[in-house]
Design a protein that fits this description.
Elements: H1 6-20, H2 25-57, H3 59-70, H4 72-90, H5 101-151
Length: 152
């Protein structure tokens, strides 16, 4: 709305100094500051009242509906994601009858998943241990190089 830069503020300050005088200038600035504070408070109160009215009227729901209508691809993808999550939650291997073929396969897959997790955890731990050993060897080499340089 109003765009005041430093140069405009400087000009306003100089004009105020000339018109009002140096004696009454602090009082003027204090009163202007109070007025601006009251105006901001009223604007804040008005804005919050409008937001409350919009929430009560259901404007946010209408906004969501309009956004969904404006971008149907994202809405469809959200629906697909939700369906996939629901499907993932509904497929619980413990719900199958253990004597059925499906129950046997589910138990077998769960056991294989545990083996895969254990194997990958072991491989990660071994890799990190190897990296730590390599870093330790490099540090020892650097310390040895510093000790030989310090002696010469």
């Amino acid at each position: 709305m109003f765009d005041l830069g430093w140069t405009e503020l400087l000009v306003i300050g100089i004009v105020a100094l000339i018109v009002v005088g140096p004696k009454d200038l602090p009082v003027l600035f204090r009163n202007v500051g109070r007025w601006v504070g009251k105006a901001r408070g009223m604007a804040r109160e008005f804005s919050s009242a409008m937001n409350e009215a919009a929430d009560q009227a259901g404007v946010n729901e209408i906004k969501k509906g309009l956004n969904a209508a404006a971008n149907p691809v994202n809405t469809a993808m959200d629906g697909v994601k939700q369906a996939a999550q629901d499907l993932g939650k509904s497929i619980d291997p413990t719900k199958f009858d253990p004597e059925s073929e499906t129950g046997k396969l589910a138990a077998e897959r769960a056991e294989q998943a545990k083996k895969i997790q254990a194997t990958s955890a072991r491989a990660t731990a071994e890799r990190k241990a190897k990296e730590a050993a390599d870093a330790l060897a490099k540090a020892e080499e650097a310390e040895a190089a510093l000790n030989t340089e310090g002696k010469t």
